[in-house]
C-alpha cells in the first residue's frame, strides 16, 4: 500500500501527524531483499510496513523508532524516525580496490550500499572476501579485521556466513587456556563422592561421525515394569559460574552445525574430551533413573550426580541392524530390547495425550573433501533414533516436573499455543481438502489432521503448513508447558555439551543439593539467559539453513536446462515456489507464465489467471525446467513446463 498524497483528514483510515499527535513505535527492522521493510513492535501489535524510500540509513536488524504515517484497519505504514541501536557492526563482503578508493560490497543483499575503507593499503586479489568492522556511520566507513580469502576457495562461503552472523570458530585465548587446564580424567576424590554406576552396561547411541557424546542409556525389566537410566555428561562440574568457559558458552548459546563442519559451544578439550561419554573410560555424569510401570508411566525416579563407564559406543546403524535381527550386539541385547519396549509404550502415551509428530524428512547434502556437493539425500528418522529421542523426552519431562515440585528455579523449554490468526489461515488452506481444525487450542486437533493425510499426496504440503502455524519454541524461567509435545512440564536437560540452557538446568540442580542458599542469586539471571539462549538458537538455525541452501543451489547448477516434477509449496504475489523430490525449492515467477495475467488470491492460496481462470494452488503437481541457480543469492529459478492439479485429493481425503 503506497502512501496517499491527497487525503481527507476526516477519513477514519488515514492517520497523519498534521492532524493528530505523532505516534512513535519502537521495534526491530526486517528488510526484504526487494528493498522494503517491516518493523516488529517491541510491545506487540501488527508489523509496520516501511517503504524503501522511508528506510533512511537503517539496516536489517536495527532497533528503530518509527513514526506512523498511515493506518488502515490493523495495517500500519511508517517511516524510520531514529535508529536506536545498530545490529550490523560487523559486515562480510567482497573487496574492490580502485586507484583512489577501496570499498566493500556487503554480501547481504538487504544492505544496498558500499563501505569505504579509508586506511586499507594492502593489495589483494580480486573477489577477496573480508570481514569489516564499521568505524563510522556518517559517513559510512570501516576497517578490515579479517581476510577470509577468495570467494571461490573451499570453505570461504561457509566462513562468510558464520562471520556475517558474528560467529567465530576459534575460542579466545583466555577460554582456550582455561580449557587446557581441565583434568584429562575424573579425580578419585570426586568419584568417591558420587553414586557409582560403573557396573551398569551403559551404551551411547549416536551417528557414526558424532564426537560430542553427551547421553548414555541403560534399561532392564524389573518387578513387572522397567528400569530406565539416562546418564548425561556432567558439564556443570567443569564449567563453573563466572569462568571464562562459562562466559563464552553463554555468548555462543549453542553448538552450530553448518553443512560442512561443527562450531562447538565448548572447546574440544571438553566437548570431545573429558565431557564426552566415550566408551571404556570413567566419566562424571548426571543421572535421571526412572522406574516405569508396565503401562509406560514413571512411578518413581531419582536425579543425582554419578560416575559411569560406558560399556559400548553404538551407532544408529548398528542398533537398527540388531532390531532387524542381526546378532552382532548380543552383549547389549537385554538393554536394547528393553529400550525398544519402553520406546513403544512412551510413543503410545505421547500420542494418547495428543503430541504432534510432524515427521518431515530433513535434507542432507553429501560433500567431498573439497566441500563440493556430491549428492542430496533425505534424512528420515530411524527406529534407533526414535528410541533415543523417547528416552531423552522422558528424562526432560521428569527433570522439569522435579524442579517444579521441589520449587527449584530453572529454565524450561516452552511452546505457546498457535495464534488464532495463524489457525484461521491454516483452516483456509485445509478447506481446499475438506479438512478443518476447530479452535487450534489442543495439540490433538493438529494430530488428527496429520493422521488423516498420512501417506497421501497432500501430506507434505499440509504438514509443512501446519508446522508454520506453530509458534517458535523458546526458553523461559516459567514453566508454561509445551504445546507441540502436549507436555505440562518440559525442559532441556540432556545436551549440556552443546546447549547452554541444559548446562544451566544442571547447575540449578547441583545448587539445590550443594548450596541451596545460592539458588535465589542464580535465579536472578534466568530471564537474561532464557532470552539470550532463544536468540542464539534462532541464529544457529538461520546459519544452518543458509549453508544448506548454499550447497543445495551449488549442487543444482549442473542440472540447468533439465525438467523436474515438483509440488507447489507456497504462493506469493510474485509467483509460486516449487519443491522438488530431493527437498530443494525454487521460484516460478508469475510474470513469466505465458497465456494470461496471474493475480495472487490470498484466501485461495493460488495464482489465478485474469482471463482464463487457470489457477496454481498450493499442493498442485507441476513440471518445471531449471533455468538458473544463483549461488550468491542462494536461489533457484524455474520455468513452468506443465501442471497437473491434485483436485482428486479432496475426494480421497
Write up what this structure looks like.
The chain is of the alpha+beta class and 653 residues long. It has five domains: 24-85, Beta Barrel (OB fold (Dihydrolipoamide Acetyltransferase, E2P)); 90-153, Beta Barrel (OB fold (Dihydrolipoamide Acetyltransferase, E2P)); 174-415 and 476-545, no CATH class; 420-470, no CATH class; 560-652, OB fold (Dihydrolipoamide Acetyltransferase, E2P), CATH 2.40.50. Helix content is 27%, strand content 30%. The protein has 15 helices and 29 strands. The strands form eight sheets. A five-stranded mixed barrel has the order 1-2-3-5-4. The chain has a five-stranded antiparallel sheet with strand order 8-7-6-9-10, covered by helices on one side. Strands 11-16-15-14-13 form a five-stranded mixed sheet. β26 (606-609) and β27 form a beta hairpin. α1 (156-164) packs antiparallel against α14. The radius of gyration is 27 Å and the shape is globular.
* Global morphology: globular
Radius of gyration: 27 Å
Question: Strand-residue fraction?
Answer: 25-35%
Q: What's the main sheet like? A: 5 strands, mixed, barrel
Summed up, the helix count is 15
**Structural class by helix and strand composition:** alpha+beta
* Structural domain count: 5
What is the average per-residue confidence, as pLDDT, rounded to a whole number?
91
Distance between the termini: 39 Å
Helix content: 25-40%
Question: How is the largest sheet built, in terms of strand order?
Answer: 1-2-3-5-4
Low-confidence stretches: 1-19, 645-653
List how many beta strands DSSP finds: 29
Amino acid at each position: 500500500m503506497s502512501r496517499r498524497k491527497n487525503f481527507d483528514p476526516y477519513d477514519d483510515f488515514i492517520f497523519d501527524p498534521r492532524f493528530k499527535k505523532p505516534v512513535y513505535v519502537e521495534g526491530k527492522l526486517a528488510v526484504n531483499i526487494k528493498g522494503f521493510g517491516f518493523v516488529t513492535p517491541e510491545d506487540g501489535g501488527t508489523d509496520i510496513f516501511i517503504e524503501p524510500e522511508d528506510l533512511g540509513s537503517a539496516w536489517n536488524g536495527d532497533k528503530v523508532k518509527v513514526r506512523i504515517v498511515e493506518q488502515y484497519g490493523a495495517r500500519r505504514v511508517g517511516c524510520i524516525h531514529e535508529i536506536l541501536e545498530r545490529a550490523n557492526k560487523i559486515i562480510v563482503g567482497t573487496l574492490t580496490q580502485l586507484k583512489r578508493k577501496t570499498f566493500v560490497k556487503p554480501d547481504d543483499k538487504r544492505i544496498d550500499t558500499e563501505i569505504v575503507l579509508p586506511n586499507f593499503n594492502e593489495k589483494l586479489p580480486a573477489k577477496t572476501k573480508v570481514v569489516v568492522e564499521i568505524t563510522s556511520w556518517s559517513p559510512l566507513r570501516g576497517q578490515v579485521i579479517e581476510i577470509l580469502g577468495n570467494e571461490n576457495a573451499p570453505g570461504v562461503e561457509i566462513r562468510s556466513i558464520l562471520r556475517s552472523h558474528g560467529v567465530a570458530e576459534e575460542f579466545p585465548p583466555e577460554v582456550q587456556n582455561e580449557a587446557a587446564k581441565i583434568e584429562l580424567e575424573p579425580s578419585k576424590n570426586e568419584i568417591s563422592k558420587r553414586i557409582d554406576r560403573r557396573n551398569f552396561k551403559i551404551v551411547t547411541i549416536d551417528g557414526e561421525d558424532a564426537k560430542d557424546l553427551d547421553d548414555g542409556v541403560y534399561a532392564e525389566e524389573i518387578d513387572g515394569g522397567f528400569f530406565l537410566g539416562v546418564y548425561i555428561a556432567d558439564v556443570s562440574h567443569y564449567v563453573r559460574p563466572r569462568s571464562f568457559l562459562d562466559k563464552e558458552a553463554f555468548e555462543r548459546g549453542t553448538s552450530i552445525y553448518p553443512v560442512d563442519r561443527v562450531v562447538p559451544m565448548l572447546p574440544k578439550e571438553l566437548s570431545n574430551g573429558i565431557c564426552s561419554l566415550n566408551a571404556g573410560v570413567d566419566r562424571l555424569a548426571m543421572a535421571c533413573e526412572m522406574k516405569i510401570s508396565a503401562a509406560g508411566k514413571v512411578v518413581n525416579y531419582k536425579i543425582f550426580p554419578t560416575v559411569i563407564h560406558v560399556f559400548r559406543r553404538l551407532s544408529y546403524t548398528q542398533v537398527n541392524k540388531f532390531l532387524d535381527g542381526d546378532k552382532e550386539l548380543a552383549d547389549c541385547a537385554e538393554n536394547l530390547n528393553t529400550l525398544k519396549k519402553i520406546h513403544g509404550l512412551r510413543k503410545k502415551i505421547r500420542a494418547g495425550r495428543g503430541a504432534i509428530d510432524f515427521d518431515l524428512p530433513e535434507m542432507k547434502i553429501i560433500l567431498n573433501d573439497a566441500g563440493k556437493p556430491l549428492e542430496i539425500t533425505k534424512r528420515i528418522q530411524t527406529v534407533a533414533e526414535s528410541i533415543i529421542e523417547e528416552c531423552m523426552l522422558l528424562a526432560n519431562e521428569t527433570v522439569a516436573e522435579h524442579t517444579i515440585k521441589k520449587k527449584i528455579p530453572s529454565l524450561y523449554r516452552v511452546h505457546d499455543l498457535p495464534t488464532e490468526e495463524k489457525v484461521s489461515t491454516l483452516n483456509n488452506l485445509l478447506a481446499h481438502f475438506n479438512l478443518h481444525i476447530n479452535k487450534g487450542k489442543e495439540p490433538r486437533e493438529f494430530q488428527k489432521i496429520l493422521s488423516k493425510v498420512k501417506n497421501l499426496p497432500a501430506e507434505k504440503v499440509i504438514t509443512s503448513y501446519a508446522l508454520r502455524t506453530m509458534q517458535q519454541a523458546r526458553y523461559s524461567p516459567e514453566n508454561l508447558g509445551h504445546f507441540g509435545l502436549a507436555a505440562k512440564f518440559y525442559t532441556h536437560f540432556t545436551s549440556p555439551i552443546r546447549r547452554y540452557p541444559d548446562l544451566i538446568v544442571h547447575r540449578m540442580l547441583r545448587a539445590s543439593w550443594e548450596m541451596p542458599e545460592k539458588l535465589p542469586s542464580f535465579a536472578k539471571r534466568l530471564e537474561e539467559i532464557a532470552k539470550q539462549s532463544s536468540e542464539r538458537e534462532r541464529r544457529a538455525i538461520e546459519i544452518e539453513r543458509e549453508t544448506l541452501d548454499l550447497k543445495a543451489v551449488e549442487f543444482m547448477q549442473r542440472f540447468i536446462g533439465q525438467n523436474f516434477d515438483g509440488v507447489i509449496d507456497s504462493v506469493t504475489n510474485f509467483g509460486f515456489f516449487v519443491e522438488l523430490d530431493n527437498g530443494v525449492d525454487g521460484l516460478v515467477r508469475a510474470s513469466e507464465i505465458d497465456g494470461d495475467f496471474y493475480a495472487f488470491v490470498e484466501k485461495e492460496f493460488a495464482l489465478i489467471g485474469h482471463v482464463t481462470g487457470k489457477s496454481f494452488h498450493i499442493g498442485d503437481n507441476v513440471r518445471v525446467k531449471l533455468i538458473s541457480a544463483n549461488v550468491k543469492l542462494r536461489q533457484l529459478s524455474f520455468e513452468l513446463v506443465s501442471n497437473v492439479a491434485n483436485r482428486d485429493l479432496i475426494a480421497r481425503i
